[in-house]
Amino acid sequence: MWPDTEATPIDIQDINETDVLADTIYNPLETEWLQRGLAEGAKIVKGLDMFIAQGLASADIWFGEKFSKKINLELIKKVLKSELC
């Protein structure tokens, strides 16, 4: 995670198009690991998506409402990208 963006502790040699890579890091938006996965044809789930989903799931539970069904995900992503990354 930022600022230590050069570390890649996972062996990335065996990634291929049948893999799905999920990252919890949201800054940078695409880690080297995800970039390499894309280059090899893998599907990816970025950390920012997981960060948002976790926050919405928590709000749904804590407040007993489905905030996750009422919000504009693209707007949230846009704001977070401009603020975090």
Description:
- Helix content is 44%, strand content 7%.
- The chain is mainly alpha-helical and 85 residues long.
- It has one domain.
- Strand 1 (20-22), helix 1 (32-39) and strand 2 form a beta-alpha-beta unit.
Oligomer: single chain
Weakly predicted, low-confidence segments: none
> Distance between the terminal alpha carbons, to the nearest Å?
11 Å
Q: What's the gyration radius in Å?
A: 15 Å
- Strand residues, percent: 5-15%
Layout of strands and helices, then pairs:
Elements: E1 20-22, H1 32-39, E2 43-45, H2 47-63, H3 73-84
Parallel strand pairs: 1-2
Keywords:
85 residues, mainly alpha, two-stranded parallel sheet, 2 strands, elongated
Quick rundown:
The chain is mainly alpha-helical and 85 residues long. It is 44% helix and 7% strand.
